[in-house]
Amino acid sequence: MKLNRFLVLMFLAVFAISCGSKKKVVTTKKEAEKRGVLSESPRETDRVRIIEGEPKLPPVNPRLYTVKDYIRDFSSIAMEEMRLYNIPASITLAQGILESGAGKGDLTMRANNHFGIKCHDWKGARVYHDDDERGECFRKYKDARYSYRDHSLFLTERKRYAELFDLDKDDYKGWARGLRKAGYATDRRYPDKLISLIERYELYRFDGDVLKRPSPSYTHTPESPESVTYRVKKGDTLYGIAKQHNMTVEELQRFNNLRDTNISVGQMLVIISPE
């Protein structure tokens, strides 16, 4: 009898322990986020929580969305990133304009990705987009501001950009040339394009606002029309030009009033809606 009672007690004890162990297996939200189970983008939730306010989304009607609209919508974000990470707001905005097609590029519309940052070690949501190769993996953001924050982190966390942070905080020309030198872009005209956009739209004034110092006064001279236009070369196709500038063929046709995909050598194409 005692043996039977002992066996029953042992059985109940084993059962209780097994139930307890099952409860411990339940994954907490924090643990799940670390493992990438609950959070599509751990980097967004873990590293950019200070971002608040109304979400920044792609333009509702991209056809009517201009470069000036883009500056209006994103200048305050670029200035905040400058305060936190010491990247000139003028540079961030110019890169955003150039690489997102002023908010109208296909990648930006689909993924809120304003800087063309590829997946690399990204554990969050992603999209696939034709770039240097077809179907490359790019980071996807729920809010455009996360793209701006990831751009700041991308530059501050990589040693090859370290020298840029030794420049004066409003030295946009030094930054533009330094980005190209550090390998951010392969386009040899990349610095000229950034500088042209900064001076065309007086983006340097946002650096002055952050630093609380008078902005320099420049007279913009359109020495680098490539910042908003492209001259067709032998062998170019409309698809290739669109791909190179993070645009769709339809956008190129719309910006340039093209009825088909026929282009000719020497033809000037608008690659960013200028106004």
Notes on the protein architecture:
The chain contains 12 helices and 4 strands. It is mostly helical and 275 residues long. It folds into 2 domains: 42-219, Lysozyme (Orthogonal Bundle), CATH 1.10.530.10; 228-275, Membrane-bound Lytic Murein Transglycosylase D, Chain A, CATH 3.10.350. Strands 1-2 form a two-stranded antiparallel sheet. The chain has a two-stranded antiparallel sheet with strand order 3-4. A hairpin with a 6-residue loop joins strand 1 (126-129) and strand 2. Helix 4 packs across helix 7, helix 5 (89-100) crosses helix 9 (190-200) and helix 8 runs antiparallel to helix 9 (190-200).
Low-confidence stretches: 14-50, 219-227
Number of helices: 12
Order of helices and strands: HHHHHHEEHHHHEHHE
Oligomer: single chain
Q: What is the third-level CATH name, the topology of the largest domain? A: Lysozyme
The percent range for strand residues is 5-15%
Number of beta strands: 4
Q: CATH class of the largest domain, anyone?
A: Mainly Alpha
How would the global form be characterised? globular
> So, CATH architecture of the largest domain?
Orthogonal Bundle
The structure class reads mainly alpha
Q: Let me know the largest β-sheet.
A: 2 strands, antiparallel
Count of discrete domains? 2
Estimate the mean pLDDT confidence. Answer: 77
Rounded to an integer in angstroms, the radius of gyration calculated over CA atoms is: 25 Å
N-to-C terminal Cα separation, in Å?
93 Å
